[in-house]
Amino acid sequence: MTRAELVEIARMYYEKNMTQQEIADKINLSRMGISRAISRCHLEGIIEIKIKYENSYTDLEKEITAKYGNLKTIVVPYDSDKEIADKFLREGAVRVLQKYIKNNQYVGIGWGSTLSTLHKIIPSKCETIGTTFVPLLGGYGNTDYSINSNNIASNIGKAFKGNNLMLHAPAIIENENLKHTLLADKYIKEVFSCYEKLDVAIIGIGNPSIKDASIYDSGYFSKHDIYELTNSKIVCDIVSCIYLNNHGQEQSLELLDRTIGISSKSFKKIPVRIAVSGGINKHVANKLALESQSINVLVTDEKTAQFLIK
């Protein structure tokens, strides 16, 4: 059966609401043959089924807002399959970006696996004029480039047909003196000057205490840095400029003195601070991020939302 024939069967079944038997009678095939053809349409991508879950979790979202105050929450379905769960989170993130990103803005972009493929599902109609996408953290060298803030800012910038800047510096360097030298570079200065102009930021939330945390794949953190995070009982990493311990207290870590990226003070001034974060391992991190008021828009899954209102 040709693709054109499969498409015609799919149209009769889904657009004209014909039964399989009616289609079989019309084109002189068995009903079983029609059933198999429809299955092939699914396998070959001719038919795509999209479940519209928007506005399905309104009550949960309202409860979170009532508990944590000035917060906008977007809840998406939970799935035990991480790949599917991340897909739901990214779809929710795109909805939020479409709402908040406007022309002539400065948009800060975080790092991490959740944001790394976000650009692939941003609709082509999402075009901006004069909007600049800015990496919130350096990152080159021995790193996974796909989760690098520069790479993500570039990809999202292209998806929105905007501009993007590059922060050509490591995320965390060996000593504070070298940091001051790098900050004198005119191109790095340009990025840092944009941190005070940001209208929107989108980030992931990390939990350094879990074994599969992105910090272990990023290449940003040395063994000494990871020891400091562990020793300080850090369970919430907000774009590697805000570290919260298991009591929700922000910690002034030594590694912050060697980090090249936005500061905690500058991040908290951004009017719209979107976090995209879900999964059981992130429950505590998300709760602490909300309680600290470090973010004011959260895209998360149903199970995390239920945990947040306990």
Automatic annotation (TrEMBL):
Matches recorded under Pfam families: HTH_24, Sugar-bind
Gene Ontology MF annotations: carbohydrate binding; DNA binding
PANTHER family reported in the protein's UniProt record: SUGAR-BINDING TRANSCRIPTIONAL REGULATOR, TRANSCRIPTIONAL REGULATOR-RELATED
Keywords: DNA-binding, Transcription, Transcription regulation
Keyword Cell membrane: no
Keyword set includes Transcription regulation: yes
UniProt lineage: Bacteria, Bacillati, Bacillota, Clostridia, Eubacteriales
Organism: Alkalibaculum sporogenes
InterPro entries xref list: Cro/C1-type_HTH (IPR001387), NagB/RpiA_transferase-like (IPR037171), RNA_pol_sigma_r3/r4-like (IPR013324), SorC_transcr_regulators (IPR051054), Sugar-bd_dom_put (IPR007324), WH-like_DNA-bd_sf (IPR036388)
Family per similarity comment: Belongs to the SorC transcriptional regulatory family.
Descriptive protein name: Winged helix-turn-helix transcriptional regulator
Taxonomy, superkingdom: Bacteria
PROSITE patterns: HTH_CROC1
Location of the HTH cro/C1-type domain: 15-36
